[in-house]
Amino acid sequence: MSVLKTLEELFVKGAISRREFISRTAALGLLAAVSPSLLPGPAGAETPQKGGRLRLGVSGGSTTDSLDPAAITDIMMQLLIYGQLGNSLVEIDHENKPVPELAESWEASPDAKEWTFRLRKGVEFHNGKTMDADDVIFSINHHRGEESKSAAKAIVKAITDVRKDDKNTVTFILEDGNADFPYIMSDYHLCIMPAGGDVQAGIFTGAYALKDFEPGVRAFAVRNPNFFKPDRGHFDEVETIAISDVNARTNALKTGQIDVMNRCERKTVHLLERTPNLQILRQDGFKHYTFAMQCDMKPYENNDVRLALKYAIDREQMVKTILRGYGTVGNDHPVSSANRFYAKDLPQRQYDPDKAKFHLKKSGLKDAKFRLHTAEAAFVGAVDAGVLYREQASKAGIDIEVVREPNDGYWSNVWLKKEWCAVFWGGRVTEDMMLSTAYAAGAPWNDTSWNNKRFNELLVSARAELDEAKRRNMYAEMQQLIRDDGGVVVPMFAADLAAATDKLGHGPLAVNWELDGFRGPERWWFKS
Amino acid sequence: MTAIQLLKKSPASARVGMIIIVFNLLVMMLAPVIAPYPETEVVGDVWVNSSAENLLGTDQLGRDMLTRLVYGARNTITIALFITLISFTVGATCGFLAATLKGWTDQVISRMVDIIMAFPTLIFALMVLSVLGTSIPVLIVVIAILDSTRVYRLARAVAMDIEVMDFIEVARLRGEKLWWIMRREILPNAMPPLIAEFGLRFCFVFLFISALSFLGLGIQPPTADWGSMVRENAGAITFGILTPLYPAAAIAVLTIGVNLVVDWFLHQSSQLRSH
Amino acid sequence: MKTNTSIILRRLGLGVVTLLVISILIFVGVEALPGDLAEAVLGQSATPETVEAFRKELKLDLPPHVRYFSWLGSFLRGDFGTSLANGRPIADLIGWRFSNTLFLAGITALISIPFAVGLGILAALYRNTLFDRSISIGTLSAISFPEFFVAYILIAIFSVQLTMFPSMSNIGPQMTLLQKIHAVALPCLTLTLVVMAHMMRMTRAAIINVLTSPFIEMARLKGLSWRRVILHHAFPNALSPIINVVVLNLAYLVVGVVVVEVVFVYPGLGQLLVDSVAKRDIPVVQASGLIFAFTYVFLNLTADILSTLSNPRLRNPK
Lengths: 528, 275, 318
Prior knowledge:
heterotrimer, A: four-stranded antiparallel beta sheet, globular, B: mainly alpha, MetI-like fold
């Protein structure tokens, strides 16, 4: 028992973290003997407390930000508009399932082409107006049509018509059947605004109402007393501060100037974890990093070249070094283990210099130099990842030249243009969204210019398939096709890492977006 | 006084400076011999403390820090030296020309320099480097041009003060050519502030390269350079990891060494002329 | 005196021309960068159709010279225009940020210039002593560290360990002057360390250079003390290079502190310029770029006038 005493003392004094304390006592088989006051309650059993001011320090704020939901492209506005001020028809819960939000229920026609949503009654906007079908139609149409310059234009393109059935019922008619349509309606751009109002006014239905906003600097919101979810929105006030430098965020959190920071620096998060009075919020979601080869450009039109490069990367070392262990290895396809139809029986591709040599030889390519274009803008650590890849591939006799491109203009100048480059993918809640966005032939963001007939057929039929078991098989086959024939090297899935004061209480974290699906401010609370 | 006599009379501080410079030059030349590992090889875990295998520990990718420092010396000092020499030649020549010729020459050069200096450096660097690419020769020329504007202003200001002196007038009356006046009369008298500036400019180059790597421009990885090494490891300092201090200290020691020698030159030149 | 006034007037005229040329260069420069506002704002959501609609609405599809002259036209009428990205008036975006930038630069200048010049004089007075060497080595080490790194070290010491000053300097309008000064203590200290060495060393070098002139020897022969010789004879004659380096550093404090702004989360103009260049928001880039250029041209002019006034022989050109 004396070991336990020592550990307890260490923990109470703050010399070891809570996580360390629990894992060490658990390792000794002593967890049951620990005095209960030292342990966190079972997840979800804690009763949320009201009150307090939540101060969030987040990256991704820009002086060019706008309150128009059609213009949301980065974390600060996602967290403000979708996380504090607004709601969409559907919410994604922590198990990645669609649950009712502003819509009470929904149903599809048998071909999944017509979707009818019944709206929640009596929901009030921040300006006092009651929400009805016209508001929903206005908000969705804001992103549709020729003139639309919405970032969500592509997402709502499949909607051919929106019909008002009555005051509280709306039906969406789609071009083709889509079994995942409720997921689309959970998109953060599709927040519901009052019809005919100023789209830049920041008036929505959410847990907090906007008081003050300076783009790229700070936003301040106070609790909405008429919020329609009684068990959410626990803070009195939420202050969102844009802090683009990760070290500045870390220091602000360590010195207590903010309560939560997003995107911890992976290089130092293991050190941050040891800091007393802090907790790390880890979410293993859909975010993945890729090296995309254009299958219509030399020499990547040869699948042996692609396979050689896929065998030449040590995924374990990538996760260990670039992600510092905060992530999982990829299997050269973009579907994450958090997705519903993840093919868990597909064998994991291993680092194998001999096989890489074999395929390179088979391709007939001699003395080839592969130029890998990369930049910190592609993803944090992308340049380091490129350099590491170069070292690993050299063991297979493959010569990779790492080209660092300027951060500025990376997405318009390098991505989709250069034959091989590093890419960040936030991932999507459904397989269909991910695969149609980046792997379907002819899709604007098909960054590997991959065109596989069998895959394209499967993609269309799986989308409209309402039978889960059949769908699962189809998606498994698609994952295998990408893995063995596609132009993408997917070395790793990165966990989202945020850090917070240990006074912050939360339930199980959702994985669809960072900071509890952007909904931290609505879902979290301060422990008393 | 011969060079050897001069050296013998040099104060201890100047000798320390010279030792530092010579040491760095030796490291530069013998880099492949001294470095315990190849320049880019990953040899261990990330940010390992110093040990017998890795005397200064490892960097953010697990490469040997000492090796990176040694190769960094080679890459960075060569580039910095080139940049500083070019910027001083260009800047000082133009500055002297403007001060002696005055009139239109002065106006044209000064206004051009004004424009370059008043132009936001960030946009300038972005524009030039994303259009021309970031190969090392381009990098050298771009930084040299930006730097030479600073040298120009100083050189012109100093030369203006000298130009109104009587001995210049005497030389003019003697019928000396412009080039001769610039080289034999103005340059020696303008030397002290220029040399003092040289000592500083030389180290600013390291910092400029590090600032460029902030924008994703600058020297291509995996080439080691001190400025980028500080940048890439900087976050660790908040947690008490000393790794980023090593490249920073390397820059500091070299800067101090160069400036100790510069100070001695300054002292020497003022004594020489007063006797 | 008449010639002086006309020289100043001419320089002012040239300054305006410089600004005009710079506005053209900025415009051309940002145009030449790959990508445009539509692509940059939409980022990874930029599908061809969305980009097309975006360009049309913001008139980005008009030829560049048309856009430049329509911008110049309204700029000359005193209308800065609105940000293309979020439609806010640029005057609102810039106003308080510029005053923040000036606030930080002002406080830093107030501390660093007298300190640097004073140390420079002392170093020249006691040159080659231990005192001279230690401040020399101290300031040199300070500038050898990249400024963001100096900032991290200061934060690690003063805000994480000693908790004396905040690590974030996000000042707001509701704060009193004293609170603001407390908030900017660390960025101010960082910048002081960065600019001090340059000014201090130049002062020292300029004074030592003057010390070799015959009139100093005369003064010495008259039996005046070193202190008197340096303060009353050497320093006034070394002013020209000192003024130049001081002004250069002043301009740097206004124009070049974006890294310090980022590290300390300080809402200054540099951050605005960086953000709007990244998003290709040309009117904002133009406005903030021109403010920087104006600051520089203005300071430069001041330096030239001051050096002319400080040198008796330049004052009355033959």
